[in-house]
Model the fold of this input.
Amino acid sequence: MATVAETPHPPKILHTECFIDGQWRPAVSGKTFETVNPATEEVICEVAEGDAADVDAAVKAARRALESGPWNRMDARDRGRCMYRLADLIEAEVDELAALETLDNGKPIRESRHADLPLVIDCIRYYAGYADKIHGSTIPIRGNYFTYTRREPVGVAGQIIPWNFPMLMTAWKWGPALAAGCTIVMKPAEQTPLTCLRMAQLAKEAGIPDGVINIVPGYGPTAGASVVKHPGVDKIAFTGEHRTAQIIMREAADTLKRLTFELGGKSPNVVLADADLDRAAKGSYVGLFLNQGQCCCAGSRVFVHKSVHAEFVSKVKELAKNRKVGNPFSIDTEQGPQVDKAQFDKIMSYIDKGNAEGANCIAGGGRAGDRGYFVQPTVFDGVSDSMAIAQDEIFGPVMSILTFEDWEDLIRRANNTFYGLAAAIWTRNVSNAHEFAKRVRAGTVWVNCYDVFDAAAPFGGFKMSGQGRELGEEGLKAYTECKTVTVSLD
Ligand code: NAI
Ligand code: MG
Done:
């Protein structure tokens, strides 16, 4: 286990205040909160702690920008050009932004630099290309009329994001909102506010007019809840825990806001007897351990056919034991710390439950090092469906391996969860792959791969894993209202 050295070139902290109407401002209350480096447990800096008063100012700025001013009158093609410029500015600062993300979140620098950032840039460019391609249709109705539809921006979008992919979640939310002509009030996660704030400044430099993007850092029950309740907000796009989404849905009822949710999962990852086992083991390992296991779509229930179970387990165990955990700024580090103490404690409690309920811990099982929120890559074999580690979202580097023999039984067990975000299957049999894809209740199905994401491919959950879709054309639609216009031709 490598010790956690300080980063040799600490990224610059340029922005720590609320970004409202194109200006940097302290919170009205004057309050601040600490953001912490999870690799060292040291405070990075203080950030403005926004609340209802700051959210109100942000919403007013967003409404003004929506209803009058340059954004509202801007040609759609010019809106797209602002977005392309934003992507270019992010690309020009890619090393600095990756370092800032790694500092605040703890993810390994090679992932923030070579996975998160390229996806951020690609997402903004993808939606920039959509800005001037949003249109309705002409509809033949009965009688002498001309009927057409218009796709208009849904309005002010309240966007509440989590800490596991701070910049990428910012891009997933801004891309379709800006393309559609919406304006934004965003609340970043309290654990990881820094890159979102930096992106806001780049958006201003890219020519996105004041008031179009507003950022209010702060806590969920205060700043977040104020966004949800504000009557000047038309839509909430939320990513996070399903219990938070339930609160948001209740609190949004008074103003009947449009809601899109991207929530958690307990995704089944199935290894059939005919799978390429090296590939399946490597893919299952990445599908669970990526991003310290802090992925909504993590393949956290690994179902392995009994006939290949022993061989598969030995391969995964080897990979987990060799995973390089340590200083996230070292270029060869594969796993950094969990994002904060709360997540670290939650994961350790699930490891305790796995042991107490009789699962067989074959790798890891403890803390790594003595400073920072590092958890050893952990694999439990002999897991049964009723155990807590097979039912609850752990959101950490803990894999649960279950065995199966019968196909129908497998399908039933794969679907036996209130989640439905993602699923994967490893097989050489095309019929089984497609039958599984059809019968599994999940928004994304990967066949012989895992964690393949693209700005063009819709992503979201069945059941309690979400509502609506992000990315692709589906994701864009969630930021538009359809208006029907009928003209008498008599
Ligand atoms: P959370 O759902 O509480 O936080 C996500 C965002 O919602 C943050 O910006 C937070 O400040 C905000 N928020 C919290 N309460 C709110 C409220 N009442 N009104 C408006 N906004 C509110 O998730 P948390 O507590 O960070 O993590 C808990 C668990 O949730 C994790 O262990 C994991 O299982 C799951 N999770 C899932 C994510 C996903 O990508 N689907 C992301 C983060 C967490
Ligand atoms: Mg919470």
In short: The chain has a mean pLDDT of 97. The CA atoms of residues 381 and 401 lie 5 Å apart. Residues 160-162, 164, 187, 189-190, 219-221, 224-225, 228, 239-241, 244, 247-248, 263-264, 296, 343, 346, 393, 395 surround NAI (ligand 1) (CB under 6 Å). DSSP finds 16 helices and 20 strands in the chain.
